[in-house]
Design brief:
Formate dehydrogenase/DMSO reductase fold; alpha+beta; three-stranded mixed sheet; 12 strands; 2 domains; Alpha-Beta Plaits; globular
């Protein structure tokens, strides 16, 4: 006992004699373990000048020297600077699929080092399989962030939470800056950013830059039992390896982001391999020996309703997009009506319903914005959504819609003032405010459409999105106007036929545009392969009857709108508008809900349990999801 006490006393004396790490010299950013093995140490004696995409590997040359050598990464507020001679070279992972045994040690090491909860994993192991007994083959894939040359997460993030560093080429993300919109999880083809619905923020692989500063490879590489993972300056071939391939079966198109990961896979695989998760995608070998994604008809051909599954965590975005498009369309029509000869629309300006109608427009827009804000993981940080106007379409969309609401509010206020004072210049100011709102709304609507043109989500990446969004501006905008104008005309014995013609013409433009876009979209997906075609397969089977109902309602809308536009309807015009209103709302709500629930991303294969949406839903249905150790993410945004 005395010897133990003396040892403790001596150690306390040593600690008291050590220099202050802040005042004197900084300690290493990562305490090396005794006897660190060579396989865990960085070793790149030679490097190439450019990578396979023609981009310079020396990031100081690429940045024009903007990041001076010796700059500290301030890891854990430590100003220490690593001594790696290749500190400013682009680094990346190398994965040898032949060696991976699917032990998940890399996952465990990563999660242990980063303190991740069970439902979050920066690195995950999935697999594809093919063949029949006894010639059955399985290939495991371990994947994390690929720290891409063209990081779409960085450009898409509205809060500027991402930074591409000259040090090691690491793409780092700051969870404290993030407000939890999850847009980066949409645009990333590799499922690297992880949205934690409990914390309300995104986090991801940080390349273990603290270990790199000490000359050590990332934790996942050091923990790999099969020597499948390696790490170093990109394009270098690791020891005892012969390939640095840009992709393997199950890996998305590298041209989307130019990822910094290379592969070796020498063992032959069957001409067709399948995923064990619930995603209806498999991979078939083409004439060039490359595997491409095709539809896997796991659910057969039976069509179903599944109306309950139309509801998703993106419901607030369904309301936000529809409400915004309707209000923009209705307001612009009212604003321009006196100048383009739409007297049946312009007549409302002289009625008692004018200001209440504008107030309803504002209320709908505010409702949509509030829902989209509450949809964030951290709603109180909504103001950070304007931080990345240079690159992010989400930032531009948010600014455009916010300015539209501001202009609409100013227009409504000035019109209200003009009712009391009747000053001519107030009307001019109102017109300026209205024009500002109209332009801002159209800009916001354009970037709303751009936000969904995502290469990693092929079902969305089609021009049908613009026909849908701008078509809804006309169709739902006309329906919204009719709610106020039809009763007004009936009460005042106005020209009902003229109003019905205008509303029908607007609705016809919108519904016809959206219908043409949907027809072209379906035709494109029928001959396309991959995740987009898989989404269409789900649309025609899992939601087949609901899809048919939406298409039928859309056809009714086109017919009703055509009749209203071309026929001189009087009393029958009210009935036609009522049918158009009900069928139009049904078609647009179903269509927009399908828009969100159908999309299948170009993400990496999961396993039978882990990273499998089908198992996650089963776990929720039977109660397993209530056990946090199962690792099923809560069904929240």
């Amino acid at each position: 006992m005395l010897s133990v006490l003396r040892a403790v006393r001596d150690r306390l004396d040593q600690i008291g004699a050590e220099p202050d790490p802040v005042v004197d010299s900084p300690k290493p950013t990562w305490e090396k373990r005794p006897g660190e093995q060579n396989y865990a140490k960085l070793f790149d004696p030679t490097v190439q000048e450019t990578n396979r995409y023609g981009r310079k590997i020396d990031l100081l040359d690429l940045s024009g020297g903007c990041a001076p050598e010796g700059r500290s990464l301030m890891i854990n507020q430590n100003p220490a600077v690593g001594e790696n001679p290749n500190r400013y070279k682009q680094h990346g992972f190398h994965f040898t699929a032949d060696n991976c045994i699917g032990c998940h040690a890399c996952e465990a090491a990563c999660s242990e080092k980063n303190g991740n909860p069970a439902h979050i994993s920066f690195r995950s192991v999935g697999y594809v399989e093919g063949g029949t007994y006894p010639d059955y083959k399985r290939m495991n894939i371990s994947m994390a962030c690929n720290h891409c040359d063209d990081p779409v997460c960085l450009k898409g993030c509205p809060t500027r939470a991402y930074t591409k560093h000259a040090e090691y080429g690491a793409v780092l993300q700051d969870p404290d800056t993030c407000f939890g919109c999850g847009y980066c999880t949409w645009v990333c083809p590799y499922n690297a950013p992880q949205l934690d619905p409990i914390q309300g923020q995104v986090s991801k692989c940080n390349m273990c830059v603290d270990r790199l500063e000490e000359g050590l490879k990332p934790a996942c590489v050091s923990a790999c039992l099969g020597n499948a993972l390696n790490f170093g300056v990109i394009e270098n071939t690791p020891e005892n390896r012969e390939q640095v391939l840009p992709q393997i079966p199950g890996f998305p198109d590298p041209n989307i982001t130019n990822p910094n990961i290379r592969f070796q896979q020498t063992k032959s695989m069957p001409n067709e391999v399948t995923r064990t998760d619930s995603m209806p995608v498999k991979y078939a070998k083409d004439d060039n020996g490359q595997f491409r994604s095709v539809v896997d008809e796991k659910e057969g051909k039976e069509t179903n309703w599944n109306l309950a599954r139309l509801s998703s965590r993106e419901n607030p975005l369904v309301i936000f997009t529809l409400a915004t498009q309707a209000v923009i369309g209705a307001f612009i029509t009212v604003l321009l009506a006196p100048y383009i000869g739409l007297d049946s629309i312009a007549a409302i300006e002289n009625s008692l319903l004018y200001i209440p109608m504008l107030a309803v427009f504002m209320g709908l827009q505010v409702w949509g914005l509030v829902l989209s804000t509450l949809h964030l993981g951290k709603p109180m940080r909504f103001y950070r959504g304007f931080n990345n106007l240079k690159h992010s379409p989400v930032s531009r969309e948010g600014l455009g819609v916010t300015l539209f609401l501001t202009g609409l509010g100013a227009f409504t206020f000035l019109k209200l003032v003009n009712l009391w004072l009747e000053w001519g210049f107030v009307d001019v100011l109102a017109l300026v405010a209205g024009g500002f709102a109209a332009i801002s709304g159209l800009v916001g609507l354009w970037y709303m459409h751009k936000s969904y043109r995502i290469k990693a989500r092929p079902f969305w990446n089609h021009w049908q999105v613009i026909t849908s969004f701008f078509g809804t501006m006309f169709s739902l905008g006309s329906l919204l106007l009719g709610v106020f104008l039809v009763p007004l005309v009936l009460l005042n014995d106005g020209n009902l036929s003229a109003l019905v013609t205008v509303l029908g013409s607007m609705a016809l433009i919108g519904f016809a545009a959206e219908s043409l876009g949907l027809i072209a979209h379906a035709k494109y997906l029928n001959v396309e392969s991959g995740e987009g075609a898989a989404s269409h397969y789900v649309q025609c089977t899992t939601f087949g009857k609901t899809y048919a109902l939406r298409n039928g309602l859309m056809a009714v809308c086109v017919v009703m709108a055509l009749a209203m536009a071309l026929l001189p309807l009087q009393a029958a015009g009210v009935a036609a508008y009522a049918v158009l209103l009900v069928s139009g709302l049904g078609a647009l709500l179903i269509g927009r809900a399908l828009f969100y629930v159908l999309v299948i991303p170009t993400t990496m294969p999961g396993a039978f349990f882990w990273k499998n949406k089908g198992f996650e839903q089963h776990a929720r249905d039977v109660g397993l999801a209530n056990m946090p150790q199962v690792g099923v993410v809560p069904d929240l945004h």
